[in-house]
Every structure is written in structure tokens, then in C-alpha cells.
Amino acid sequence: MKRDMPFKSGKVFFIMYEVTPSNYLVFANGKPFYEFAHRIPLERVNWLQVTGDIVVQELSIIGNGPGVKGGNLLMSEAQRQLLPMMGPCIVNAPVPFTTNIRGGMIPKRTIVVKGIPKSRAKSFTVNLKVGFNNDVALHLKAQPNKKTVVRNSYINGAWGEEETELAKNPFKDGEYFDISIRCGEKQFKVYVNGSHCFNYAHRLWNLQQVDKLEVEGDVNIVYVFM
């Protein structure tokens, strides 16, 4: 079957390999591109190599299966702390997007959202919510064309005090990002593009009730992983 070439000279692209028991599922720019059946046993695959005329902006390895921490794969300390994650990978999800978080945001649970702001994006939001009453434990509002990333909570029908201070805004118009939200005992730790971005102290303490993820605004989702 003939496929359109997803890679163009000078243009940013994103490629993802999803490993299944029988094949590699290849996604290009968030869309299914190719399926390649395994020819080598997976336990023997322990190197990742990128070569050629390319500038690598980001490389991530996600998952909780065998071999994620092993072999010769090198990960930063931040990446190691973001494991393990649970549940399926949701690819190319429509926006607005809502999904349930099975068991709630228990300590050590990590959620990853990979996406790209739409052209001339004003803002997009990522919310961790309580499903039965719509309280928001963490409201993250990214504004690619401004210097602020707003954080807040919505409890008992009222917004709390905003937190906006950051050294720099990691979200840029037309550039892929990944947000990793790690739930701790006392706070959420949020990483963007592999680097620690901010901590957010819990304002809702019954973390198991925080059971809904919501993404809205001027953004295209590449994948969500929980």
C-alpha cells in the first residue's frame, strides 16, 4: 500500500514505535504509518540508534514492560523517577479529551501527555479532576505566546490562588512537548520535555478521588500514557 511521505526537509516531525507481542506499530506525526513484524526476539533488542542528517530535539522511552530499565538503554535520573506508568497508550486523541484514571492519582502514578500546540495557539489546559463533583486538583494552563504557565485548583465551586512563577515557559508555538505529571505524597511533580518544570503542593488530599484527566484548548494530542 502506497503511503504519503510524512517527513519533509526542514520540518519538525514526531515518530513513535509502539511495541506489541507480534510487531512494531509505527506512528508518524500522531498518525498510523506502518506495521513491521518482529524478526528478532524482543529480549535481544537493547539498543536505540539514531543516525543521519537529523537534529534530535527529544527522545523518550515510556512503558512498564520488561526491559524498560534494563539492557544498554541510558535514561536520565528524571526519566527513572517517572517510572512506572500504568495502563494503555492512547494515540491521536481528539480534543477536548477526557478519560478516567483507574484508581485515581495514587502516589507514584505518572501521567504523560505528548502533543503540539496549534498554529497561533492562545492556550491549552490539562486538568486532573474529581469525576463526581468536578473539583480540579491540578489545573495547568499553558500559554505558548506568553511567559506564564498558570497552575491552580478548583475546590467547592471556587478557584484558589494562581501560581505562575517559572524561570521560562517551556511551551512554544509549533513545537512538540511532553508533560509528565508525577503524583507524590505531598505534591505533584511536573516535568516538561524531560526537565523538571515545577512542583504543585496538594490542595485536595483524597488523591484516589482524582480520577479524571481532561485536555482542552488549542492543542493536538499525539498520545496520552498513564
UniProtKB/TrEMBL annotation:
Keyword annotations: Lectin, Repeat
What is a single molecular function from GO for this protein? carbohydrate binding
Q: Does the keyword Repeat apply?
A: yes
List, alphabetically, the InterPro entries matched: ConA-like_dom_sf, Galectin-like, Galectin_CRD
Query: Where in the numbering of this chain does the Galectin domain appear?
Result: 1-62, 97-226
Question: So which domain of life are we looking at?
Answer: Eukaryota
Protein name per UniProt: Galectin
